[in-house]
UniProtKB/TrEMBL annotation:
<keyword id="KW-0902">Two-component regulatory system</keyword>
<dbReference type="InterPro" id="IPR003018">
    <property type="entry name" value="GAF"/>
</dbReference>
<dbReference type="GO" id="GO:0046983">
    <property type="term" value="F:protein dimerization activity"/>
</dbReference>
<dbReference type="InterPro" id="IPR003594">
    <property type="entry name" value="HATPase_dom"/>
</dbReference>
<keyword id="KW-0808">Transferase</keyword>
<dbReference type="InterPro" id="IPR036890">
    <property type="entry name" value="HATPase_C_sf"/>
</dbReference>
<protein>
    <recommendedName>
        <fullName>histidine kinase</fullName>
        <ecNumber>2.7.13.3</ecNumber>
    </recommendedName>
</protein>
<dbReference type="InterPro" id="IPR050482">
    <property type="entry name" value="Sensor_HK_TwoCompSys"/>
</dbReference>
<dbReference type="GO" id="GO:0000155">
    <property type="term" value="F:phosphorelay sensor kinase activity"/>
</dbReference>
<feature type="domain" description="GAF">
    <location>
        <begin position="1"/>
        <end position="42"/>
    </location>
</feature>
<keyword id="KW-0418">Kinase</keyword>
<dbReference type="InterPro" id="IPR011712">
    <property type="entry name" value="Sig_transdc_His_kin_sub3_dim/P"/>
</dbReference>
<dbReference type="Pfam" id="PF13185">
    <property type="entry name" value="GAF_2"/>
</dbReference>
<dbReference type="Pfam" id="PF07730">
    <property type="entry name" value="HisKA_3"/>
</dbReference>
<dbReference type="Pfam" id="PF02518">
    <property type="entry name" value="HATPase_c"/>
</dbReference>
<feature type="domain" description="Signal transduction histidine kinase subgroup 3 dimerisation and phosphoacceptor">
    <location>
        <begin position="59"/>
        <end position="123"/>
    </location>
</feature>
<feature type="domain" description="Histidine kinase/HSP90-like ATPase">
    <location>
        <begin position="158"/>
        <end position="209"/>
    </location>
</feature>
Amino acid sequence: MPLRSGEELFGLLNVATPHTSHYSEEDLELLESVAFQIGSAIKRILLTDQEKEAARVSERNRLARDLHDSVNQMLFSVKLTAHAANEMSQESVSKQAFKVIEETSQQAVNEMRALIWQLKPVGLEHGLINALKNYSDILQIDLQVHVDGLINLPNMIEENLYRIIQEAINNTQKHSKSNIVELILNQQGDYIVVTVKDNGCGFDVQSTNIYQSHGISNMRQRAKVIDGKLKYYF
């Protein structure tokens, strides 16, 4: 008995009873009604999940717009003001202070742009590799990509992989001060292995307490969502 809602087919309902060779018209009508109810329930569940995902994306996009229109613009204004004050000031101490403000503001602007990109990744619709390269360009990181096999992933897996690799790239810049990141993607059948390497200086795992960091925790959770495993090598 097909499980359907409208024209959409979700599966089949198999019914078996002992010592029964055929079903009456009444039995078949009842089974059809049950199958229809199950199909309708599945459709409602799918619609609810889609609505939740749409709401999540909408809220994320709204937050990205707000950050761009408010905080990002204010930081840029502070940078321009500090630069102008530095040019007009005659005292060396004041010039140095304005220079520090300008450089710090620029760093904050860069981090804000990266945050906005994380909230609303432009380019993911053109593929995982393209989106990651665009993000790396914002961070001024040379991303070297090596692909082995045909990388063709469902949307949910692709987005979670993007977020995991994105956080890995962030960590290479923050902790190891790296400017070159090597990304290797190897798809073998139903499995894909993603390896991220950098040319950084490394860090003290014990003092950094990397295993309890918010970013690593998010990476673990996203890997779990797509039935993946996360491993670290220092």
